Amino acid sequence: MSGQDIRQAASGEIAEIMELIAACVQVMQAGGSDQWDETYPNQEILLADIAAGTLYAYFLDGAVAGILVLDEHQSEQYREIQWPQNEGTYLVMHRLAVHPEAQGKGIARKLITFAEQLARKKGYTGIRLDTYSKNTPALALYKGMGYELRGEVKVSGRTAGFPVFEKRFDTDK
Q: What is the set of domains in the chain, with CATH numbers?
């Protein structure tokens, strides 16, 4: 994938991005997950991601079908994780979401592959991320793409933990 369907999102696309988030929240909550809600991720957070140039969108037939945020911000709780190695710089994935109507088309996998290509191109040591322990499709996807479970963090107000994953580029050859 050359990334032709993926690019940095623009502020003018925020309504479409918020619609995607609302659809994802509805599906999550219907499935018994409290990972996201009406307060997170919100428009203010996503506009800040867009302004920072860290929110990438996957377009399908001209519409935003998926999003992913890539930056260097690791949660404070990541300090509690026993990382096998801490040297180097890491790109961190946040807020990966695919519109429910576009799920099952490999979009999440394409966004993650894009993130890995970008990270390698920019010289990062690897990628770190966390997801919700109730999000079984995401857990399976990350494990299937070679991400290794490194621990779990807690987020106040959430009923389950957040497994933390890492993929190092110097060891996955």
A: 6-168 (3.40.630.30)
Dihedral over Cα of 32, 36, 37, 38: its sign? negative
Q: What's this model's pTM, rounded to 2 decimal places?
A: 0.92
Residue 171 has pLDDT above 70, yes or no: no
Q: Output the six-digit token pair for 126.
A: 């690897």
Could you identify the residue written with the tokens 């060891």? 171
- Amino acid found at 82: Q
DSSP 143-162: HHTT-EEEEEE--TT-SS-E
**Other C-beta atoms within 10 Å of 162: how many?**
20
Question: How far is it, in rounded angstroms, from Cα 94 to Cα 126?
Answer: 14
pLDDT at 98 over 60: yes
Q: Determine how many CB atoms are found less than 10 A away from the CB of residue 30.
A: 9
Please check whether residue 128 is in contact with residue 90, taking contact to mean a CB–CB distance below 8 angstroms: yes
